[in-house]
Amino acid sequence: MAADSVEQNATFKEKLQLPFSLLSDPQLQTVDELGACISRYHPMSLSYPKKAFLQPSVFFFDKQGAVVFQWIQTAKLTNFYGAKDRMEPSDIIAKAQELLAG
Fold first, then answer.
1. 68, 62 in Cβ contact below 8 A?
2. Could you tell me if residue 35 is left (phi over 0), alpha (psi between -120 and 50 degrees) or otherwise beta?
């Protein structure tokens, strides 16, 4: 999930050859509902519509829309972009495969 645009997420998905969809939420509508974290303290946050950006988060949903896995980065002063200790794409893909295998 990201505060980036649908187009930016599509480019990211293609670049990393991700076999799953990425949620684009520039208006930060999912923050409260899913418990995601935002960052308002980095100068880059000013370039986003709500003057904040989402810390990296990973959610997997079942066919009924229930969350079956979540990983949420917490905002820290030493982690403005959420890059430190985030899930690697290979780890996300492995988790998706694990969930699909049942």
1. yes
2. left
For residue 1, is it within any domain? no
Mean pLDDT, residues 64-73: 91
Residue 11 has pLDDT above 90, yes or no: yes
Give, for 76, the enclosing helix (H) or strand (E).
none
Mean pLDDT of 54-64: 87
- State the Cα angle at 70 between 69 and 76, rounded to 5°: 165
Angstrom CA distances, 38 to 29, 71, 91, stand at 11, 14, 22
The parent domain of residue 28 ranges over 6-101
